[in-house]
Write a structure and sequence with these properties.
mainly alpha; globular
Length: 299
């Protein structure tokens, strides 16, 4: 039997792998069929509501106070705003400058969890978290000049902060009920937050379906199902491990994205073509080494 200490790490890494698959699918869909990324939020919301309904009818929600229900819904709203800020940043800046900033969230979680949850670690674990964050940012960059401090940067910093608030809220709520219940309420909260987006962009989604067929919905639904599965794994990992370490370890996601991108570029270039010049190989290898050392230190 795998000990809890190892299980949270396995679940975090599994979630990172699933999210890397979602990243690849989203990149393909957004480059081929959808020019307005906010349309994807409609699919995310509907799939999330279906998942929440499935939890209710199969497992049922466990008892929880009205105040904590409100907090769980609020956690979902924060998760939704994380997406909104991310997509707004994408509209004004290229993806290679935006994505790396997602991995600032473990640093925010580190401080918030220490203040509100009392999560305090040894210096070696803090070093491991820092190495994972640095490695995640470096491996996501084409080159170091890609970091800029324009409006997109501040949007992504705020996005990472809202994700950190979501994570800390989830960890707090898991002290009162099971992860199925929190996961379901979160999805409801995210759907509530997305109502304005659904109202504004549903006509655009209908146009996309008419133009490209139902395959767009089918592919996006698969991607968002994998996204929800990853969110569930992270929620379970958070229920048995420290939220600071769980989220830090899941930041190895860009490593998996890189591996998948190289494989697809080599064998299926029609699906994805990733240009990796010799000048960035050393940067990528250095980032992988930092992430490996960081993962060892925190686990």
């Amino acid at each position: 039997m795998v000990e809890y200490f190892n299980m949270w790490a396995i679940l975090s890494i599994s979630a990172a792998l699933l999210w890397s698959v979602v990243n690849i699918i989203d990149k393909y869909v957004l480059s081929k069929w959808i020019r307005e990324p906010l349309v994807v939020i409609i699919i995310i919301s509907f799939i999330g509501l279906i998942a929440s309904g499935g939890v209710y009818f199969i497992y049922e929600f466990q008892p929880i106070s009205y105040f904590n229900i409100l907090l769980a819904l609020l956690a979902g709203v924060f998760h939704f705003f994380c997406y909104i800020l991310y997509f707004k940043a994408l509209k004004i800046e290229e993806v290679s400058r935006v994505v790396p900033l997602f991995y600032l969230s473990p640093l925010f979680i580190l401080f918030l969890a220490a203040i509100f949850l009392g999560e305090v670690f040894t210096p070696s674990k803090y070093l491991g978290i820092l190495l994972l964050v640095i490695g995640a940012i470096l491996i996501s960059l084409k080159n170091l000049s890609k970091i800029s401090f324009g409006r997109a940067f501040y949007l992504m910093v705020l996005s990472a902060f809202t994700l950190a608030i979501n994570s800390v809220l989830v960890k707090y709520l898991l002290g009162f009920t099971d992860y199925w219940t929190i996961f379901a309420y979160e999805r409801i909260g995210a759907a509530i937050g997305s109502i304005p987006i659904i109202y504004l962009y549903l006509p655009r989604l209908i146009d996309i379906i008419r133009e490209h067929g139902k395959r767009v919905i089918a592919i996006l639904s698969v991607a968002e199902f994998l996204n929800l599965l990853a969110l569930l794994l992270i929620t379970i990992a958070t229920s048995i491990g420290f939220v600071t370490l769980v989220n830090a370890l899941s930041s190895i996601q860009p490593f998996f994205v890189l591996v998948l991108a190289v494989i697809l570029s080599t064998f299926y270039p029609f699906f994805l073509k990733e240009e990796i010049g010799k000048s960035v190989i050393l940067l990528k290898l250095s980032a992988i080494l930092l992430m490996f050392i960081g993962a060892v230190l925190i686990t």
